[in-house]
Amino acid sequence: MPDLSPLARSVSGSVLVPADDGYAAACTGFNLAVVPRPDAVLVARDEADVAAGVRFARDTGLAIRVIATGHGAAPVPDGGLLINVSGLDSVSVEPFARTATVGGGAPWREVVAQAAPHGLAPITGSSAGVGAVGFLLGGGLGPLSRHFGVGSDQLVSARIVTGSGEVVTASADENPDLFWALRGGKSGLGIVTSATVRLVEVAELYGGALLFDANDARAVLTGWLAWGADADARITTSVAVMRFPDLDEVPPPLRGRHLVSVRFAAPVDAASGEQLAAPLRALAPVYLDALGPLPIAEIAKVHSDPDGPLPGWMRGIMLGELDERFVDALLGLVGAGTESPFLGVEVRQLGGAVADPSGDSAMGGRENPFTLSVIGAPNPALFATVLPGAFAGLRARLGEWIAPTTTINWLGESEDPTEYRSAWSPAAFARLAEVRRRYDPSGVFTFGPTEA
Asked: I want to staple 44 with a disulfide (CB 3.0 to 4.6 A). Which of 49, 72, 278, 315 is the partner?
């Protein structure tokens, strides 16, 4: 381990090693199952600290890891320098320009809260605590995506510390190759210290979820697929088969129940929303109706993801066209009467503006009509073997419907090189490799399967 005193003297933040108070907290984010153990962690206060940390790592040969909210944390090798950018959490909304400038450590909840009073919204993820920048770097699918596209479609510019420690701006006019890569290329490009995004006008939102008993899952899923074939492109929906734990933290109506949740979001008024959602309400007897007019500031209630921190395990794939045989295959694994270690299995409908991007970007898989994601029961004892084995079985059973490409934010913690490459077309993968070499010639940001 190199002498850290030159780095400590050059930054306004803190440089911590394993023996220091605060080290463990600085390494910990949302996902408690993925906590890196670096040789040192730099808790950055500003962009200058980030740049100083990158230059130090470059000069001393340390590999760099980055943590912000830690929501999408993936396993990384121990050692190296971890740069914690959670303190770069400023959010500034310009209502007349309809933009927001977001620090590299800010979660979406802060952007949503500041934009909502102006009748504006970002293209956010399903979870309020997801880091805005990490979401954008992977493309970004969310509850408004069929109508407005993915989050990275709204990226205007970004400030990024490159592998040489230089701070540059990436936009359509400045470093356009890097700008292309940042919108879906995810890792190995540098550390984004701030991003400016366009906001969309959302005066009203009709959203939430309809919950049905798992015994009605086949009727719900087949009916949803038929309805979705010509669904209004303003509506973004998904269906999740959920096993709610019998725990005090779970609301009583859900506790210990095996349910099917139809998530629904449309930027329309209440009357239009009622009309658009009526066919879904008629799919089967509704166990719990939590769908209605929703303030845009409460968009996270559409999915009602846990706000953590907690141990998590997630995997995802993208799917082609689906049919009743798919429904039967899926429910044979997770439907009523089955045993499964998955807390939830969700199928999201894409299409609409997701499949018709506003401009060229690195995001892969957006041509696919559906995604599938699984969330494992939050029991770390299952993470090493049980959940990966169950997911492998699910992939094998659903193989004929799995698309050959996916999108990087959907892979979860996977480090398989073949899966990693599937997040982009071969041409995009090669182009990304070239951009990474240009902006990180020493490879300080390279780890895992990035160059596999």
From this structure: 49
Beta partners for 375?
314, 344
Give the separation between CA 29 and CA 75, rounded to whole angstroms: 13
Report the predicted TM-score, pTM, of the whole model to 2 decimal places: 0.94
Element (H, E) at 82: strand 81-84
Amino acid at 351: G
Cβ atoms of residues 291 and 229 within 8 Å = no
56: amino acid identity, one letter: F
Distance, CA of 11 to CA of 64 (rounded, Å): 16
* Side chain identity, residue 141: L
**Omega prior to 306 cis, within 30 of 0:** no
- The DSSP code for 218 is H
* Cα→Cα distances 213→218, 253, 254, 265, 286, Å: 10, 12, 11, 21, 8
- C-alpha distances (whole Å) from 337 to each of 211, 247, 258, 341, 389 are 18, 21, 10, 13, 20
- Other Cβ atoms within 10 Å of 219 Cβ, number: 15
Which two tokens mark 325? 């045989």
What is the mean pLDDT for each group of 10 consecutive residues in the chain (452 residues)?
A: 91 96 92 87 98 96 89 70 95 98 96 96 93 94 95 97 96 97 94 98 94 98 97 97 91 95 97 97 98 96 88 93 98 96 97 86 95 93 94 97 93 78 93 95 72 42
Tokens for 379, please give them.
């029991």
Instruction: For residue 413, count CB atoms less than 10 angstroms from its CB and return exposed for 0-12, middle for 13-18, buried for 19 or more.
Output: middle
How far apart are alpha carbons 122 and 203 in whole angstroms?
13
Strand order in the sheet with 64-67: 14-16, 40-43, 81-84, 64-67
Are the C-beta atoms of residues 182 and 338 closer than 8 Å to each other?
no
Tens of pLDDT along 142-177? 999 999 999 999 999 999 999 999 999 999 999 999
Instruction: Tell me the C-alpha to C-alpha distance, in Å, between residue 89 and each of 36, 46, 68, 92, 110.
Output: 21, 10, 9, 10, 9
How many Cβ atoms from other residues are within 10 Å of residue 406's Cβ? 25
pLDDT at 24: 94
The three-class DSSP label of residue 307 is coil
Decide: 75 and 413 in contact? Cβ < 8 Å: yes
Q: Which residue has the tokens 């066209």?
A: 321
User: How close are the terminal C-alpha atoms of the chain, in Å?
Assistant: 27
Asked if 336 and 221 touch (Cβ cutoff 8 Å), the reply is no
Instruction: Write down the pLDDT at residue 76.
Output: 62
DSSP secondary structure letter of residue 90: -
